[in-house]
Design goal:
The chain has 257 residues and is an alpha/beta fold. The chain has 9 helices and 11 strands. It binds zinc ion.
């Protein structure tokens, strides 16, 4: 997969060397020992949104490993119906659970981007067969136009213009949003964000299908604490108690206009 230099006004192809990638203008980025490529620039590192912390990444991975999010994974898999020759980008891939799991099941080529170094590091260590990039996707996705047959955005920040640019004309985009009942026991009922999201994508995409996938899990106190950590609400007067917690996503499948 061709990678493009993220520097504004450059965007030339990056050539791969042993420990770095470099563009013809001399912009150079490191390849980490665990295999991911770090395309962050100084202004990204100063960003107010540097992404998930190592603690949040570890908490989220423990929850995935308990299997509580397997029904959500199944819902996403049924919605995108990927095949082995798909080329899939997960924009905002976090620690890689959804993309890495789907890639292992299906055998497609998988590419994940996230702004969090701890998240991408965890993804690269567990799923070395996929390619993982640290980059600020709010700014620029470091790929050529029409590189992917599927783009995933799973509870991440959405950049409709960039999603469209890197997606093939016959491709599909899967957007997963936290549904109103998601974690309702811990943070109350949330807003329904489907209409607003469809509107956000309307210039470039039409909605082809939608589905809500919901599951509930009986969690022990440690797992409840992990949920709170993963949503940055670990500070509570009382320690977490065992409880049943609801996980719910609105899945939206879009086609390019
Ligand atoms: Zn460059």
């Amino acid at each position: 997969m061709l990678l493009l230099c993220p520097v504004r006004g450059c965007h030339l192809a990056l050539a791969r060397e042993e420990k770095r990638v470099v563009c013809p203008q001399g912009h150079s980025f490191d390849i980490a020992r665990s295999g991911y490529i770090n395309l962050l620039q100084p202004q990204d590192r100063r960003s107010k949104n540097p992404g998930d912390t190592a603690d949040a990444v570890a908490a989220r991975r423990r929850l995935h490993d308990r299997g509580v999010t397997d029904p959500l994974l199944r819902g996403i898999a049924e919605m995108i119906r990927a095949v082995p020759n798909d080329i899939v980008l997960d924009a905002g891939c976090g620690e890689g659970f959804y993309l890495g799991s789907l890639a292992r099941e299906t055998g497609f080529d998988a590419y994940g981007v996230d702004i969090s170094i701890p998240a991408v590091e965890a993804a690269a260590k567990r799923y070395p067969e996929c390619e993982w990039i640290v980059a600020n996707a709010d700014r620029f996705l470091p790929y050529a136009d029409r590189s992917f047959s599927i783009v995933l955005s799973i509870t991440g920040r959405m950049n409709a213009g960039e999603f469209r640019r890197v997606l093939r004309d016959d491709g599909r985009l899967l957007v997963a949003l936290a549904a109103p009942e998601d974690l309702i026991e811990l943070r109350g009922k949330g807003r329904d964000r489907v209409d607003r999201t469809v509107e956000t994508f309307a210039k470039d995409f039409t909605l082809a299908d939608r589905r809500r996938v919901t599951t509930a899990a009986d969690l022990d106190a440690a797992a409840v604490q992990d949920v709170l950590l993963s949503i940055y609400r670990p500070m509570r007067a009382e320690p977490a108690e065992a409880m049943r917690v609801t996980f719910s996503l609105d899945l939206l499948l879009f086609r390019p206009r």
